[in-house]
Amino acid sequence: MSQPQTQGQSSGERALACWEFKKCGREEGGAKAAELGVCPAYPDHGHDCAYLAGTLCGGQVQGSFASKAENCTKCDFFKSDNFDKTY
Question: How far apart are CA 84 and CA 87, in angstroms?
C-alpha cells in the first residue's frame, strides 16, 4: 500500500499517518491499542482522521465529525501538511 503525498509535500516525501505524527499508540500492535482499542483511522484513514468518529483527541475518544470539528481544526496534525485536505 503506497503512502499518499499530501498538499505542501515535495515529490518523494512520504506523508506521516496521524498515529505516527501524534504517537497515540492506537495503531494495530501499538502501546495503547489493547487499552483503548485500535483506532478507526488505522490503517486506511491516517491522513483524513478528522472525518471519522471514534478517533482519539486529548486522551478521549471523539464522536462524529460534526461534534469534534472544532477540536480537530486546532489539532497540530490537522494543521500539518500530513493531513489530507482534499475532501
Answer: 7
Task: Evaluate whether 46 touches 18 at the Cβ level (below 8 Å).
Answer: yes
The Cα–Cα gap between 29 and 1 comes to 18
The three grid cell numbers given for residue 56, joined into one nine-digit string? 482519539
Q: pLDDT of the chain along its 87 residues, tens only?
A: 445 555 555 567 899 999 999 999 999 999 999 998 999 999 999 999 999 998 988 888 899 989 999 999 999 999 999 999 997
Output the CA angle 75-77-81, nearest 5 degrees: 130
Domain ranges of the chain: 18-79
CA pair distance 82, 66, nearest whole angstrom: 21
